[in-house]
Amino acid sequence: VVEGADDFMIVTELSNLLIRSGSEGLPEDVYVTAGGGASEAVYIATFMIGQELEVVALFDSDKSGREAEAKLRKKWLTRYKGAKANTLLLGTVVGEAEDRDFAIEDLFPGDYYLEKVKEIYKKELAAAGGKKLNFEGSDLLCNRAARALKEAGVLKFNKGSVAKRMKSDLVAMKSADELPAGTKEKAKLVIKTINKAFPK
Questions:
Q1: Which pTM does this prediction carry?
Q2: Are 109 and 183 in contact (CB under 8 A)?
């Protein structure tokens, strides 16, 4: 179970790309299910656990993700004795500091993400006077993008549109070697950790 459609698209396509490259992907009997946010992912995971399914819930390492992960782990997993379930925080999986916010987009470098944002918002940026996007900061890439666009005069940011463009990129890749620098290693780590988190 992942938080949203963006996570669903990127986790699924990274797994498919790794499989095409001869690396470990998600097994055929693992289905990625998207919640409508962190708290909804808790409800979906809890329901699935109640149906005695094996469940791994992957959360973003941000305030809502950490709270949801703790709620599922402490409140619900303790109620279902013998539940075949686990929770994961994305930032922890890829070795980020405990206090650093980290979401699915952050598996990719900032400059790659910025290029996708520019591609999606090309017309709006041109209409707003073609200002250069200020992508500074160390917070989540999607938050930096929203802030940069707002400063440039583009008020609405839809991170789902950027995720769809990233998905198209991933589908078109023949090998994981085509991924931006650092992303292949992080993707392998995410998929491997998800697989290991399923109770044996």
A1: 0.93
A2: yes
